[in-house]
Amino acid sequence: MALAYEVLDVGLRGLPDPPKDAGTVALVVVRPETEQRETPERVRLTLDGGVDGDRWAKREAPKLKNQVTMMRADVARLFADGQPLSLFGDNLLVELDLSARNLPPGTRLQVGTALCEVTPEPHTGCGKFSARFGPDARALTAAPEYVEAHLRGIHVYVVEPGEVGPGDAVRVISRPV
């Protein structure tokens, strides 16, 4: 059962502030086909394919600016309310502040051994998100007071390939000036 807007709002306000400059990867998710989820211990991030084995690269015209998706793990846990975090479909669930203020487009992140860059491509809830976690979860992520927090997550693309797995560091390397 999906949580009500008010419950989610109170839950969000009760979350501790996430780290700003250095956090960790909580979960890696690969989506080989629609509705399929795998949670490998390690995965390779590549320049042309994003998350190795993910269906993103199989698209007819994959857009580099939405190559890899990243969401805050604590927000995902709240919205999921006990459901598996892999249901979100985001490739990387992390313990890091993903807000526009903290990670503006052009911010470079070391993710495991890979180097990634935050894109301006918006990552918003879709019909699948609403069906899985409820219309109130989607409405909350779009609420004016939360839009800049990027509760639904962000997009990054791979600048230098590498590997990543749960427990690996995710660190801010540089922010645009």
Task: Explain this structure.
The protein is an alpha+beta fold. It has one domain: PK beta-barrel domain-like (M1 Pyruvate Kinase, Domain 3), CATH 2.40.33.20. 19% of the residues lie in helices and 27% in strands. It has 4 helices and 10 strands, in the order αββββαβββααβββ. The chain has helices spanning 5-14, 73-80, 127-133, 135-142, and strands spanning 22-28, 43-46, 50-51, 68-72, 92-95, 108-111, 114-118, 154-160, 162-164, 169-174. It has a 7-stranded mixed β-barrel. A 3-stranded antiparallel sheet has the order 3-2-9, with no helix packed on it. Helix 3 (127-133) crosses helix 4 (135-142). The chain is globular, with a radius of gyration of 15 Å. The termini are far apart. The mean pLDDT is 94.
Any descriptors?
177 residues, alpha+beta, M1 Pyruvate Kinase, Domain 3, 7-stranded mixed β-barrel, 3-stranded antiparallel β-sheet, 19% helix, globular
Low-confidence stretches: none
Distance between the termini: 44 Å
The CATH superfamily is known as PK beta-barrel domain-like
CATH topology: M1 Pyruvate Kinase, Domain 3
Q: How is the largest sheet built, in terms of strand order? A: 1-5-4-8-7-6-10
* Silhouette: globular
The strand count comes to: 10
Identify the CATH class: Mainly Beta
* Estimated structural class: alpha+beta
Helix content: 10-25%
